[in-house]
């Protein structure tokens, strides 16, 4: 069984994994990172989105062995010192969720979008989140939250 | 669903990867996994072994090679759509790569992986066919070049032989005077292209001198719309352009599935080809 080393939310793990183990199952069942849900099972919905070496990836469509040596950030690794990440806070403030199942993936995809587009237009947000499905909200509040999160994050950068 | 069991080898060199694939006919190469893993999860494929070629340096990057651009098989869609040399020298490839699935899939999915997968509903096969790309494949016997016109054999079947790995694709630089457009009709980001049209058009003195048109999902392989290419030669933009594009579905055999029946796909091919040619001609 291959042995992999992977850093998840800042903690390094060494794990023996079956080749067919998916990254999302490693995260949830072995490392207890249940903040990342499994949604559609077919890489359509984006609920399982995490950052893999700094870029968004759907963790249901990555083998754990492919993540060997990589740095993974899940929704659980975003906050610091008990406070939410500005994007999480913005989703909270703007009521950008109902059932909440898609939210971890939405937040990760939104943060990924801001890497290149720190001040995205509504169109850019809708394009940037095209790989993430929400079946409750109709997206309006999500788009609003991403705008707000982007502004907050921009503020955070400027005041540093 | 959980994939069926398989062995896993991460190849440390291209020759090792070729050997691993040649020694086991049920082994399969793993690139970014964005097409293969869903197939494994749905249990539509049962490889005995996955040979991970995702980290091989020989297959990476985008390279300017004088008269052509060499796109390494493991260059991701994200890398390709942002590449300066691709955007300058073969922008049609960048335009189409930017429409593949969604950002997260484009971070992992590879140029070579989606071509070797040879799905006629893929966007890149039609583009590489339209641009007369040349596929470079490696096996224990050495290197082989395969013209795009011979690469796509049948549904999900390429000309790659067992034990052969796609190293990359040479995209010829077309030079000045060419315009490009990729027109895609699909329902959602992740849904397959119902019909896609890749167009490259060279104009001078107000008339089309040469056109190359590749169609996605109009048969078991990507196809060129040869009848339209011929009809467009010497044509000026205007009403007759639309007429010429009425032949876009000639000699195609579009599939029937949940998204569209063949007659609807034929209609789409005609309409989208007209849009793509106009777009590539710089006409709104």
Q: Describe the largest sheet of chain A.
A: 5 strands, mixed
Assembly classification: heterodimer
Give the strand order, joined by hyphens, for the main sheet of chain B.
Answer: 4-5-10-6-7
What is the helix content of chain A?
A: 25-40%
Strand content of chain A: 5-15%
Overall number of structural domains of chain A:
2
Tell how many strands the DSSP assignment of chain B holds. 14
Question: How do the helices and strands line up, and which of them pair or pack?
Answer:
The complex is a heterodimer of chains A (160) and B (284).
Chain A: E1 3-8, E2 11-16, H1 23-30, E3 49-52, E4 55-58, E5 71-73, H2 86-93, H3 103-116, H4 122-128, H5 140-159
Parallel strand pairs in A: 1-5
Antiparallel strand pairs in A: 1-2, 3-4, 3-5
Helix pairs in contact in A: 2-5
Chain B: E1 7-10, H1 14-22, E2 27-30, H2 36-41, E3 49-52, E4 62-65, E5 68-72, H3 77-82, H4 84-89, H5 91-97, H6 103-108, H7 111-117, H8 124-130, E6 134-139, E7 142-147, H9 148-151, E8 152-154, E9 157-158, E10 165-172, E11 178-185, E12 195-204, E13 207-216, E14 223-224, H10 226-232, H11 239-245, H12 262-280
Parallel strand pairs in B: 1-3, 2-3
Antiparallel strand pairs in B: 4-5, 5-10, 6-7, 6-10, 8-9, 11-12, 12-13, 13-14
Helix pairs in contact in B: 11-12
